[in-house]
Amino acid sequence: GTRAYGYTDTLDAEHYAKALRADIRAGLTSTPKSTAPTWFYDARGSELFEEITQLPEYPLWRAELGLLQLHAGDVAAQTGARSMVELGSGSSTKSKLIIEALRPTDLNYVPVDVSADALHQASAQLVRDYPGIRLHALRADFTAPLVLPALPEDGPRLIAFLGSTLGNFRRPARGPFLRGLRSIMRPEDFLLIGADLVKTEHEMTAAYDDAQGITAEFNKNLLYVLNRELDADFDPDAFDHVSVWNSAESHIEMRLRSRDEQLVKVRGLGLAVHFVRGEEWITERSAKFTTDGLQAEMANAGLRINQAWADPNAGFTLTLATA
Ligand code: AVJ
């Protein structure tokens, strides 16, 4: 049948496999072991992340939703955007608030995500909800330079990077990443960034170690992905989920701690990976920001801040900037 939306896959099987192999080989042969969070998001991982967003310990998702409920209208008024590109769009739940404020009819919406399943589910729903929308889904890894599908020249564009996903970049990588985004923006375009703010250590670590164990399952989903994609033999029960605050780097680290000494075969890489008892493998870094620090980083990347909004508890900020 015909799809009511466009779809471009820049992460076809070959590209995905190549990037996965390179990252996992480098990450599991370095000290400490450390891999990219990109690989969490197969269909199951995307589902688990959706469950995380509803957890009482994970208030950042709701804080951003609240900010968008209050300020999507301001974003629409300030930008007048007729195209919106969203990096890490996932289920596009929050995008709907911006889409409605921008008015969906003839709006170009480009959700960008690594999960094909998440993109198709969200896109099918959006074209049902907004028959006049022009939707072109892009499966891409936005940690690599972004090549956008052709967009009409008419009207300003808004690049939205929500959910504090910017925090998955480490501090030294954020400058080049933001400069890269700025380089694809025209003078009339805008960038909207949602970022989680530093709070008490307990609040921050609990957000990545919930009582129900959903985040632990999300973390261990990486092992299932590697077993399937790289013919590995990770035993999820041989690892514990860990959430630690790294104050020097201002980020949360999710780790997998090896319960015992073990040797794991990753046949697809021809690799045998040794873990000592208690060794911790960093599977995700999630930076927490200050409003001033984030604005300084954006300004250093050549962006000009239009406005920043924070929720009443100052737990989260939305920052709007131009190129
Ligand atoms: C989607 C990257 C913003 O870092 O908070 C949630 C992912 N990992 N719980 C985050 C995540 C564990 C999330 N981001």
TrEMBL record:
User: What keywords would UniProt list here?
Assistant: Methyltransferase, Transferase
Molecular functions per Gene Ontology: L-histidine N(alpha)-methyltransferase activity
Under Enzyme Commission nomenclature, its number is: 2.1.1.44
Return the broad EC class. transferase
Q: Which InterPro entries match?
A: EgtD, EgtD_Methyltrsf_superfamily, MeTrfase_dom, MeTrfase_EgtD-like, SAM-dependent_MTases_sf
Q: Domain (Histidine-specific methyltransferase SAM-dependent): give its ranges.
A: 21-322
User: What biological process terms from GO does the record include?
Assistant: methylation
Its protein name is L-histidine N(Alpha)-methyltransferase
What PANTHER family would the database entry show? ERGOTHIONEINE BIOSYNTHESIS PROTEIN 1
